[in-house]
Amino acid sequence: MDTNIYTEKQKMLAGKAYLASDAELAKERLKARELVYEFNQLAPKFIKQRKELLKRLFGKTEKMFYIEPPFRCDYGYNIEIGDNFYANFNLVILDCAKVSIGNNVFIAPNVAIYTAGHPIHAHLRDQEYEWAQEITIGNSVWIGGNVVINPGVKIGSNVVIGSGSIVTRAIPDNVFAAGNPCRIIRQLTDADKDYYYKDFKLGE
Q1: Which residues are catalytic, by number?
Q2: Which residue numbers in the chain have pLDDT < 50?
Q3: Which of 22, 48, 141, 156 lies at a CB distance of 3.0 to 4.6 Å from 8, suitable for a disulfide?
Q4: C-alpha separations of 81 from 34, 58, 139, 155, 163 in Å
C-alpha cells in the first residue's frame, strides 16, 4: 500500500516513518502539554482535579489510579492504564504509539517509557523522520526506579524490573529481570510469597 495516502498521524500510529513536525501532530502535542502543565501545577491537595485531568488526557483509565507530579507525555490518548495503577515522581511516557498497562502496576520514580525512535542512519534522521512501536506491560508488575523501557517492548505479568534497568526486549511472565540490557535474573515463585508472609506476618 502506498504510504502517501496516510496522514503523518496515521503513519505514526501504523508504526511507519513519519514527520513529527506535522501541523496536526504539533497541535495534538500542544493540547496534551496544556493538560500536563495544569496537572503538574495543581497544589498537592487537589487530588480529584488531577485525576480528572488524566481522564481527559489518557485513552483509557480505570477507577483506581494515581500519578505523582511531575508527569510528562507526548499525546496522552495513546496511554491506557489498568485498575490500581500507581506511578511515582517524574514518569515520562513518549506515547507516539500505544502504551498499554495492566492492573496492579506500580512504577517507581524517574521511569521512562519510550515508544519513539529515530533512524540510525544520519541521512534519514537529518530529514527529521521518526517512528514508534507499541509498548505493553502486563498485570501485577513492579518497575524499579530509573528504568528505561524502549520501543516495541512487551513485559509480561507478575514481573519485577530492577532499578536502573534498560529494557530492550520482551520480558516473560513471573520473573525478576534487571540490568543493561535487562535480562532475566530468576523466576518468581510461591517461595517469594512465603518469605514475605513470614517477615511481615501479613493477615495477622
Answers
A1: 118
A2: 1, 3
A3: 22
A4: 21, 8, 10, 14, 21
